[in-house]
Amino acid sequence: LKQFMFGGFLVKHPMLRFCKNINKNAMDSLCASSDLVYLSEGEEFLAAKAPCEEAYIVARGELAYLLQDAVETVTYGTWICEASLWVQWKTIGSLEGTCPCELVRLDASALEKIA
Predict the structure, then answer these.
(1) Of these four, 30, 38, 79, 111, which has the most CB atoms within 10 Å of its CB?
(2) 3-state SS of the chain?
(3) pTM higher than 0.70, yes or no?
């Protein structure tokens, strides 16, 4: 079930698609460790300069990315904190839901386990 729910999102990333092509069990493991995060409108999701050990993909809804005085809309299919999969990462700006949102969460430690 989780392969069906999350696999389509994860394989859009070139590295994860490569992983699936060489080892289907690796993708099954990543999907099994993934889950959904639900946000309400106006709910702050990530605070600026916070450590982050998970990557997220917008599955539904929109978020506002706030960096100093700039605001950018984050929409369906966008990766958030992808760098946390490869390096120790701290967020730069903050995010909040502009409407109800669903995000696919992938923990960086899940990727380490299949490496």
Answers:
(1) 30
(2) CHHHHHHHHHCCCHHHHHHHHHCHHHHHHHHHHCEEEEECCCCEEECCCCEECEEEEEEECCEEEEECCEEEEECCCCEECHHHHCCCEECCCEEEECCCEEEEEEEHHHHHHHC
(3) yes
